[in-house]
Amino acid sequence: MNLKEMFLVLKYLGIFLICSLSSAQDCPTFSYPINGATDVPLDATLTWPEVLGYNGYLLSIGTTPMGNDILDRKPVGIDISYTPPLGFPDNTRLYATLSLVPFDGPPIACQEISFTTIQTTSAPSCSILIAPDNNASSVTIITDLEWAYAPGANGYKLSMGTTPNGTDLVDNLDVQNVLSFNPPEDLPQNSSIYVRIVPYNDIGTATSCPEEVFTTSFALYVCDPYVNENTGELVYRAPQINLPNIVGICSDELPYTITTDDDADGFRWYLTNSGSEESLISQSRSVDISIPGRYRFEAYNTITTDSGIIECTSSKLIDIVASEAATITAIDVVNFINGKTITISAIGDGQYEYALDNRDGPYQDIPIFNNIPHGPHIAYVRDKNGCGITERSVDRDIVSNDFPAFFTPNGDGINDYWQFVPPPENFESVIDLIFIFNQYGGLLKQINPNDKGWDGTFNNKVLPESDYWFRASFLNRQEIIGHFSLKR
């Protein structure tokens, strides 16, 4: 076996070992909490670094090693965090395990960590309504109530009435450790409903919790859809909202105008970032968005009834998300005999998809491309919200101009050796050996691309200033011949 054949064998053996160990090395370590952490908050968010090339994660949490009595292999998609909706139990040692979900094959279990939660020493703080929102109007009389988790709570008491501080609908009911309540009977129509939610735990009960209020619509059937007896078509009294739940805009487009094409008698737009307080910002089809955030859109039709004119209202929460064009930070290439794997790394405030060689796609969500033919390629990263496409060359071939044009072996520590120094781009070709000759074709030096280089001597004798020639041989292409200068 000659030197070139041995180099090839060692190269592909290394690639095989890297690939065989990749799944174990891919396993992420929890960023928070760290293994063995103590006094972890009850509303803590578990986080871990993103691992590319997988279909998502499974998360298990238990009170015993490898246990899952709190969370049993819950799929969390491609999210890299998890917040327990009802919090963690206090003063408890918990065990958490992540599993990677490949696109094909069984999940890969990663190393388990343990942490201990903080001990509760005080009563919980108050909660707020999430649905219906505080001060919401035209709420259906069969609505469910939902409220936010209060850290440290292990139960909630609920009061509802038709007057301030009233309890005629629900009187201080202990609903236990849940975050929603389905009233056993329909709520009164066209009424103000006052709600107070009081969290509690083993230490005590929250104090001075605010009362919130919403207004119900007239009886449900008034705004219910009905079937037209002549045409048999379903007719909707309340408007049908077609706006998406998430609207992506470009950061450089703010302020941004959103206009609805929905058919309705009237419209209202609210800024509702806090969830408990809303600000009316428009009563027309359009609204000017100055900041990203959460907004609520209402569309209503007015209907005349025996009880007067009422509004049949439809409502939707809309998240306005700002995006920007991506920045490609790196492109990694692994060459194999029959092709190569290309991995694109990009950052930015947006949602991105990836393509090779064609600006128009097809695009994919995963930035990894396998079995790509050898040759030059171009990578494209596109923002899903239409905020731009970024492109960058994946690789190119080495040319004679990539080799140094001169060197100065005078012992000053600067440019004392002549050697090929790879530019930052990826290359299709792999240099095997470089041969250096004098003007008459005499071989002076044979260097490996990983060596320090040639110091301008032959048989320990310093050679004079002159032009010299080089010939670079490759493992996968024709040779390159060029020349350079020795200066002293």
UniProtKB/TrEMBL annotation:
Listed Gene3D superfamilies: Immunoglobulins
Q: Which Pfam families match?
A: CHU_C
Q: Which UniProt keywords apply?
A: Signal
Signal sequence span is 1-24
Database matches in InterPro entries: Ig-like_fold, T9SS_type_B
Q: Which domain of life is it from?
A: Bacteria
**NCBIfam families xrefs:** Bac_Flav_CTERM (TIGR04131)
Q: What is this protein called in UniProt?
A: Gliding motility-associated C-terminal domain-containing protein
